[in-house]
Design a protein that fits this description.
alpha/beta, Rossmann fold, Alpha-Beta Plaits, four-stranded antiparallel β-sheet, 15 strands, 32% helix, binds adenosine-5'-triphosphate, binds magnesium ion
């Protein structure tokens, strides 16, 4: 896997991205010997990722604007935001690929800017897309990476290929791999390091629905084995099934960090109420504390309410002589809230960040 020289890497710390090779070779700080000399796997009690006041400025572009993140042990943490929100830039800083303009990010209590390779021990992943030598086979690419990592890495190749279901294609050149296969090979490359923390930038982007499902299954499996996963995505639906906690970023700032369940309860539930008298139903709904009439069509109302409140509404409608024809829960509220958080005016409607 090679990381071509890009402008983002020009001011590098000298740290090789975990599981990404540079075409020019590996900086001395990251050679296997250097890794072994540093020893240790960080503070076992420190969180896998802790970012404080992280800023990245590219001339007049403020890509990341004082981001705080808290990734806890053994969780799958979603880093969500629309295109250009600053996800990749933040993950690059977390992986020690680029230097923050301000602020600090620690991996298991260690700062890659200060501690170089030692901070990246037990950490693996890729940003944007894993890159490989296309004219070499999948296995050969992994062998090169294993040689750079040294230690036990070489002995993990077969198991890593097995885990990502590429054993039968390992003897084929990477140039002929599909997008999904390359993504999976990227994860195999990360697994050579026996990571405790996996950082994945949009691992499912560009995959078809079956590929996305396979990726979710794989990530869940890795997490069930105790690996902490930090993954970015621009799709809420993609992380909803995987992540308990998320950070939602917008224009370089965290609009929300916390449990998806809290966000969901903040969003409230919404229901579509079709009744025998839509106008009277709207009047009755307005009299019940906590019930909000969010929309009013010709034949139905959309109300936002908790479950007990919706039960109260149904009784009140009965007392008022309004017959309920259909009462349908609507699922879209979390998605709505995500859009509210990431589109114009989002920050005004925020729940308190955890
Ligand atoms: N090397 C760079 N030089 C100049 N500007 C950059 C550089 N890298 C990122 N940016 C800018 O920083 C902002 C955030 O970019 P970033 O790639 O982090 O967003 P993202 O959330 O990963 O978006 P996407 O979902 O499209 O991948 C963008 O405005 C981008 O143009
Ligand atoms: Mg990105």
């Amino acid at each position: 896997m090679h990381q071509g020289r890009s402008s983002a890497l020009e001011e590098d710390s000298g740290a090789r991205p975990p599981c990404q090779l540079t075409a020019e070779g590996v900086p001395p700080t990251l050679r296997a010997g250097a890794l072994r000399r540093h020893g240790g796997r960080g503070d076992p009690h420190a969180p896998p990722v802790r970012a404080r006041g992280l800023v990245k400025r590219y001339r007049e572009v403020l890509a990341v604007d004082h981001i705080d993140l808290n990734v806890l042990n053994s969780e799958i943490y979603g880093f969500l935001g629309p295109n250009g929100a600053g996800k990749t830039t933040t993950l690059r800083m977390a992986l020690g690929l680029i230097r923050p303009t301000e602020g600090v990010v620690e991996l298991f209590g260690r700062d890659p800017m200060r501690e170089g390779a030692a901070a990246l021990r037990g950490v693996a992943g890729f940003v944007e897309a894993p890159r490989f030598y296309p004219y070499l086979t999948g296995r050969k690419n992994l062998e090169l990476l294993a040689a750079l990592d040294g230690g036990e890495a070489h002995r993990r190749i077969d198991a890593a290929l097995e885990t990502v279901e590429l054993s039968t294609r390992a003897k084929h050149r990477v140039g002929g791999y599909s997008h999904g296969m390359r993504q999976r090979l990227g994860i195999a490359a990360a697994l050579l390091r026996a990571p405790r923390l996996l950082i994945l930038d949009e691992p499912a982007t560009g995959l078809d629905p079956a590929g996305m499902r396979d990726m979710r299954v794989l990530i869940k499996r890795l997490a069930s084995e105790g690996i902490t996963v930090l993954l970015s995505s621009h799709l809420l639906s993609e992380v909803e099934e995987l992540c308990d906690r998320v950070a939602i970023v917008k224009e370089g700032r965290v609009a929300y960090e916390g449990a998806l369940a809290d966000l969901r309860s903040e969003a409230g539930h919404s229901y579509r109420v079709r009744s025998s008298d839509n106008d009277l139903a709207a009047v009755v709904a307005a009299t019940i504390p906590g019930v909000e009439v969010a929309g009013r069509g010709e034949r139905a109302l959309t109300v936002r309410a908790s479950e007990p409140q919706i039960a109260e509404l149904s009784l009140a409608l009965g007392r008022a002589g309004v017959a309920i024809v259909a009462l349908t829960p609507e699922q879209a509220t979390l998605e709505d809230l995500f859009f509210r958080l990431t589109e114009d005016g989002g920050r005004a409607t925020l729940p308190e960040a955890a």
